[in-house]
Design a protein that fits this description.
single chain, D-Maltodextrin-Binding Protein, domain 2, 10-stranded mixed sheet, 2 domains, alpha/beta, globular
Length: 312
């Protein structure tokens, strides 16, 4: 079945997912499972902690693992050092062969953060990143893959004065930007990201408009990148900023226990409001139509059955 026809067939079950399930086909697995998430202060880890608390009430014990993000998470999952992993859709499409999806959970926002108080050297748009010191994200992060694609789409990587690229975890990037050791950093996460908000309370910040790169990105990799907007007021920035949204997938190996996969599906449907971090102002998915829309990554067979059961 093609990705398009598979998606169309699955969307037929989406409308009924909110219906309560009166009986479970299997009891929740008693085995403790591990979920590879992301950096401290980021949405991945926040989501993992919220899901852990929800699953505990359903009899599923979940350990949350900090990591540098998507690429590292996929490696941990493949090695068997994690049973679940969060990954950006573009990373999952590139590196997820042989894995299964539990669902598409929410949207990340790719953010290019700069200081707003650097005078004549102020960075106003993507073209101003030419020749600048730019952090593309932590090694092993999904943002490093996405950012390279954005910079290439903007003609910067192959231009006469390419940016000087570095790879910094979020907290290192924040310190480096505040101290003037880098000119910009990219971060893929929720809005607002609390750690960035803390810096914004001390140092005036600005976000770079990423919309000029979106058309080329979407043409090269359809379905992986979405137009998105950071609302006015986030990080103390007075105007809204166009950016790029990237869906996140919750992934597993196909041999994940059926009862565990089904229990997680139930949690994603029934406990969705409890899985959005407090203070989040961005568009969050966790809806019937989005949960089953996992692109070319197939749904775990037990998760797929549960979605169909929940649709009645």
């Amino acid at each position: 079945m093609t990705a398009v026809s598979r998606r169309a067939a699955l969307l037929g079950i989406a409308a009924g997912l909110a219906l309560p399930l009166t009986a479970c086909a299997n009891e929740a697995s008693e085995a403790r499972i591990r979920m590879a998430c992301g950096e401290p202060g980021g949405l991945y880890l926040q989501f993992g902690e919220l899901l852990r608390d929800v699953l505990e009430r359903r009899g599923i014990a979940l350990d949350v693992l900090a990591s540098n993000g998507s690429a590292e998470n996929l490696a941990l999952l493949r090695r068997g050092d994690a049973d679940l992993a969060l990954a950006l859709a573009d990373s999952a499409e590139q590196q997820g062969a042989g894995l299964a999806a539990i669902g598409q959970v929410y949207q990340n926002y790719l953010q290019c953060v700069v200081r707003a108080d650097v005078g004549a050297r102020r960075i106003a748009d993507l073209a101003d990143l030419a020749g600048r010191r730019v952090s593309i994200g932590a090694p092993g992060s999904g943002s490093s893959l996405t950012t390279r694609r954005v910079l290439r789409a903007a003609g910067l990587l192959d231009g006469p004065e390419p940016p000087e690229l570095g790879q910094h975890p979020l907290e290192d990037a924040l310190r480096a930007l505040e101290a003037g050791r880098i000119d910009a950093f990219f971060w893929s996460g929720g809005i607002p990201t609390p750690k960035i908000a803390e810096l914004g309370a001390r140092t005036p910040l600005a976000l770079v408009d990423l919309d000029p790169a979106l058309a080329r990105l979407s043409s090269a990799d359809p379905g992986q990148y979405l137009p998105a907007r950071v609302p006015a007021g986030v990080y103390g920035i007075p105007d809204p900023t166009s950016t790029i949204g990237i869906p996140n997938l919750l992934l597993a190996r196909p041999e994940l226990a059926d009862a565990t996969a089904q229990g997680i599906v139930d949690a994603l449907i029934d406990d969705a409001p409890s899985l959005v971090p407090a203070g989040s102002v961005g568009v969050q998915f966790l809806t019937g139509a989005s949960l089953i829309d996992t692109g070319t990554l197939p749904l775990h067979l037990a998760a797929k059955r549960r979605y169909r059961e929940r649709a009645g």
